[in-house]
Design a protein that fits this description.
three-stranded antiparallel β-sheet, single chain, about 40% helix, disordered N terminus, six-stranded mixed β-sheet, about 240 residues
């Protein structure tokens, strides 16, 4: 995607600006002229099912090509993305992490050293040599986080990282995500867990029917949402 010669002033102080970003599939509008500036270190995207959250993240990561508008990066950021159901290669947990580092061009000794350190950070050193596809869902997600963390991305994108996990595994994954953020990595994530969003987010972006409806500090969003759509969403999602 082309970057304009003149970057909007709002984008110049942020790490990403979306300008009228759109995604159309046939006659279906998935993302509708999204204009958004992201500057917070920890941003959580909320919205009902089918709102376009995952599509928005995939557009930002470059997995989908927009049909309109553009992404403006004031500076290039190294990125990694972790999905709800991580893809595990047919090899060990350690080799899964090494693979991501090899793609970055690191030599073999460095790959092994960094991969081992990343698995230790997520508490999986003891099972580094086990086949990744035989691990539990929670363990696989931790391997995926280790694979991302080992690459030292400036931006980590997370799409519902705990949605399919049991409560104990979800808490452990959330702990790791928080540790990654505390180490200085920017987070952009989606979740259906409002408690998790409250704990992690500095900023909330609320999307509904493909439109960016609201963007505000997390505490303000949860105490005083500005849009009717967000108010209804919080009322329906809060037990």
């Amino acid at each position: 995607m082309s970057v304009p010669t003149k970057i909007p002033a709002a984008a110049a102080t942020a790490w990403l600006h979306l300008e009228q970003l759109g995604l159309q599939a046939g006659s279906t509008c998935i993302i509708d002229a999204a204009t958004l500036t992201l500057a917070a270190q920890r941003t959580v995207v909320l919205g009902p099912n089918g709102a376009g959250k995952s599509s928005l993240l995939r557009l930002i990561h470059g997995l989908l090509r927009p049909t309109g508008g553009q992404l403006i990066w004031p500076q290039q950021l190294t990125q990694a993305m972790v999905f709800q159901r991580p893809v595990m290669l047919r090899t060990t947990a350690l080799e899964n992490v090494i693979y991501g580092l090899r793609l970055q061009g690191h030599n073999a000794p460095e790959c092994r050293q960094r991969a081992a350190a990343a698995l230790d950070k997520v508490g999986l050193s003891a099972i580094a040599q086990r086949p990744a596809r035989l691990l539990s869902g929670g363990e696989q997600q931790r391997v995926a986080l280790a694979r991302a963390w080992a690459r030292e991305p400036a931006l980590l994108i997370l799409d519902e990282p705990t949605a399919s996990l049991d409560p104990a595994s979800a808490r452990e994954v959330e702990r790791i995500i928080t540790e990654i953020a505390n180490a200085g990595t920017r987070l952009l994530m989606t979740t259906h867990n409002l408690g998790q969003a409250r704990r992690i987010a500095e900023e909330i972006v609320f999307i509904d029917h493909g439109r960016i409806v609201e963007q505000s500090a997390a505490d303000l969003f949860f105490t005083l949402p500005q849009s009717n759509a967000a108010q209804c969403f919080l009322k329906e999602e809060t037990p």
